[in-house]
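Feature request, filed as a ticket because there's no other form

It would be nice if the structure record came with a short human-readable summary line next to the tokens. Right now we just get the raw output. Example of a typical job, pasted below so the devs can see what we mean:
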Amino acid sequence: NLYLEGNELSSLPDNLFSRLPHLLWLDLRNNQLICLPADIGQHRCLKTLLLEGNLITELPVELGNTITLRALSLRNCPISFPPQEVLQQGLAHILQFLRRTAMAQRPLSVHSTHTEICDAVTL
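Raw output as currently delivered:
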């Protein structure tokens, strides 16, 4: 567990989550954070993430890949992404929304692009 509440942190190291692979509980409440590192999506142990009282406006789409996450506190954060209607539905909906958004943002693979071009040519 890592308790960093009230330390006026404005950022986190980009490799925080990869350097702490067995972290279960992270308390970042009441800091000045504006974003989370993208490597959070590679974490395979984190169960609780407390972000309440920070300046975060957008959750990274990579957070949707944090498959062990069971609790997320976002109170008093000016979150605009995901939208409020998603946030109000709870953690499972938030993570699902982030995963869907990440999939929609992924570029087409070479194989799928090749297949689409071949399909267009045979039409």
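Something like this underneath would help us a lot:
Residues 91-105 form the longest helix (15 residues).
Confidence is low (pLDDT under 50) at residues 112-123.
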